Amino acid sequence: MVDTRYKEIVDYLKEAWLDLEKAEDSIMNMIKKIRADLDENPNEELFNEWQFLKHRLEDIEEMIEEIEDIILDLQDP
Predict the structure, then answer these.
(1) Where does the pLDDT of residue 3 fall: very low under 50, low under 70, confident under 90, or very high at 90 and above?
(2) DSSP letters for 24-58
(3) Predicted local confidence at residue 10, as pLDDT
(4) 37: Cβ–Cβ under 8 A, 6 or more apart, which residues?
(5) For the residues 44-66, what does the mean pLDDT come to?
(6) Rg for the chain, CA atoms, rounded
(7) What gap in Å lies between CA 55 and CA 36, rounded to an integer?
(8) 3-state DSSP assignment of residue 2
């Protein structure tokens, strides 16, 4: 059971987690589109954008994992 002093923090983290999940989905969709565009018309600008988004996606995935770990720690002190 979550201690009441952590409930507000856990709720905030869950909201942040959901926002990051949405951002992750959005970035993955952009990556897929750019990848398809690269297959049809390879150019350096698209490749650079694809790499940038890929790195941002990795950052977001790490943040999601960290938030999940924090939520679990707060729920099971």
Answers:
(1) low
(2) HHHHHHHHHHHHHHHHHS--HHHHHHHHHHHHHHH
(3) 87
(4) 46
(5) 95
(6) 17
(7) 18
(8) coil
